[in-house]
Amino acid sequence: MKFRLTVALIFCGIALVFLGGKGLFFRMKPAQFLYAQDCNWDELKNGQRVRADIDFVFEPFCETTEDGHSTNCLYLFPDLREREDGSVYIANFMGVQVMAKDYSTYDSIVNCSASVWDKGEGHLGDGGVVKFDGYLRKMDDEELGFLKKTLTKYWGYDESQLDDLIVPYIMVKNNTPLANIAMFCGGFVLLAGGAVMAIFSFKKR
């Protein structure tokens, strides 16, 4: 029993130290602002840190559930650009992961975005703005399939256009620095506790 507890403490400690350290490492990297004029979404990379003031987003194209309850959704995040004549267009799409606790915040932005884009009513930001700071991860095949289906079935794009439209990444929010520090320190404490238990266990033998 003690052996199992020792191993559990060590492995949990290693996991927390890794996750907390990873989060702190990402926080140290410079972030690419996604709506910067010089930001080309086609040049973005997996694992890259990104920032955005999200005031324009559309309904989810993919949902994850657990025990019948929704845990997170992938909302459709467009790259809104302006032409020389002042008109705007969507150059690319990617996804942004939204946890269940934040659905109402993003749904408010979705409603505002739909009014602005479809009806020309209101202004971006009327539904709220999310200060996003996170990193990019590659979409898996299932997520990419859902996105392609959404763009062809509900947005009217032709399949031949999708390769130029889709940037196959999901924006994943970083933990706060305090949360990362807490994870790192908590993991270190568990790791140290497991190591001490292991030492005493071997001494007794």
Q: How many strand elements? A: 7
Secondary-structure element string: HEEEEEHEHHEH
Radius of gyration: 22 Å
- Largest sheet properties: 7 strands, mixed
Structural class: alpha/beta
Shape: globular
The portion of residues assigned to helices is 40-55%
**Strand arrangement, major sheet:** 1-2-6-7-5-4-3
On the 0-100 scale, what is the average pLDDT? 82
Uncertain runs with pLDDT below 50, 5 residues or more? 176-180
Work out the strand percent: 25-35%
Domains (count): 2
Description:
- With 205 residues, the protein is α/β, with parallel strands linked by helices.
- It has two domains: 1-30 and 176-205; 31-174, no CATH class.
- Helices cover 43% and strands 29% of the residues.
- The chain is built from five helices and seven strands; from the N terminus they run H-E-E-E-E-E-H-E-H-H-E-H.
- It has helices at 2-28, 103-119, 141-153, 162-165, 177-204, and strands at residues 32-33, 49-54, 58-66, 69-82, 88-99, 130-138, 166-173.
- The chain has a seven-stranded mixed beta sheet, with helices on both faces.
- A hairpin with a 5-residue loop joins strand 4 (69-82) and strand 5.
- Helix 1 (2-28) runs antiparallel to helix 5 (177-204).
- The longest helix is centred in the last third of the chain and has 28 residues, at 177-204.
- It is globular and about 55 Å long.
- The chain starts with a helix and ends with a helix.
- Residues 176-180 have low confidence and may be disordered.
